[in-house]
Amino acid sequence: xxxxxxxxxxxxxxxxxxxxxxxxxxxxxxxxxxxxxxxxxxxxxxxxxxxxxxxxxxxxxxxxxxxxxxxxxxxxxxxxxxxxxxxxxxxxxxxxxxxxxxxxxxxxxxxxxxxxxxxxxxxxxxxxxxxxxxxxxxxxxxxxxxxxxxxxxxxxxxxxxxxxxxxxxxxxxxxxxxxxxxxxxxxxxxxxxxxxxxxxxxxxxxxxxxxxxxxxxxxxxxxxxxxxxxxxxxxxxxxxxxxxxxxxxxxxxxxxxxxxxxxxxxxxxxxxxxxxx
Length: 277
Description:
The chain is built from 9 helices and 8 strands. It has helices spanning 3-13, 21-28, 32-43, 47-64, 70-76, 82-93, 97-103, 151-163, 228-243, and strands at residues 128-132, 135-144, 176-179, 188-196, 207-211, 214-221, 252-256, 269-275. Strand 3 and strand 4 (188-196) form a beta hairpin.
């Protein structure tokens, strides 16, 4: 398991929580020293310096978009006062929060984008075939471009903290991820969702997805969730061709195992790849 990848996922997934080097290391199952060495050798960044830069970059984006209350932004990114936030913000960007908000742009700022999770390879086990009936989902959708999958962790954070509880008619309590078919540029819409037995009244800001009855190839992903795209790489390039089946133009479903822990990313998922009959 790539410890740096796992730490990146933990930081993005827990973007609104207080994090420490010890806490991130514990979520990754390693010592403080292990994480510090693994992360800096893989990325060139000390863990907490990267976390601080990422949170200040997110704060700058929100201020440039017109966030009215600077203190609220400061608290959301881990600062206990306007003064402490302003000092850190000026040190990072050379401007005050007020100046960035008045300018309405992050152009020219030393913003730090999420580091990309590294691609890798793992050979998944032979899948099981399973038929599922018609399913309905309600969730928070967002576009995802190639190489930007780290944003999905923060999307889950927003969905579970602000959206999940407002969804009525849930069939089960474990949320489900949906990867809708990609476009010609490789971008796809990712939906953090709950399965429902009926749509009912539409919840503002959420999308509704219905999947027709079909057969799925079911693959287990038992490693850390940050390595899920290693499994996808092996599925699309090796496992499905070996199965001699064609994928259907329908969402891929990501079912979290009952043991899945959103705080650490451990516990595993089952990936349901839709197949043409």
